[in-house]
């Protein structure tokens, strides 16, 4: 459906503060990764760093790194994640982030032009962790469509 885009959130728990030497390579790669996303086919929008302060109060954890973006399709996001220069940094995540017991990534459909909020992101992650993958909140494994999402009635 052309009137919808795919929103995504992913969170990661830092091993150290962002200014710690442990995090230096991650921080040094942020501009590169963001530039790859910005120039990727199907990219629509991403959360800017200066907008991330509000996330601490909503997620109640100042050790989280939070990323949100919007893509024209699940396929476009998949290509960026696994078939671009992003993968080089992605493969190194254990150097900077601890393993999370809960689901840390969620996708959902939004009307074209909508920018997801931290409240949206937390609600989708919480739903995914409570109910598993549904058209309301899912991951790459479940290839739900915008139409699936529109027709799904979440248990809230």
Architecture overview:
The chain has helices spanning 24-39, 53-59, 74-82, 86-90, 118-131, 146-151, and strands at residues 4-14, 43-46, 64-71, 97-98, 105-111. Strands 1, 2, 3, 4 and 5 form a five-stranded antiparallel sheet that branches. The model has no long low-confidence stretch (mean pLDDT 93). It is built from six helices and five strands, in the order βαβαβααββαα. The chain is an alpha+beta fold. It has one domain (4-151): Alpha-Beta Plaits, CATH 3.30.70.100.
Write the SSE topology.
Elements: E1 4-14, H1 24-39, E2 43-46, H2 53-59, E3 64-71, H3 74-82, H4 86-90, E4 97-98, E5 105-111, H5 118-131, H6 146-151
Antiparallel strand pairs: 1-3, 1-4, 1-5, 2-3
For this entry, give a set of tags.
156 residues; alpha+beta; Alpha-Beta Plaits; 5-stranded antiparallel β-sheet; 6 helices; 5 strands
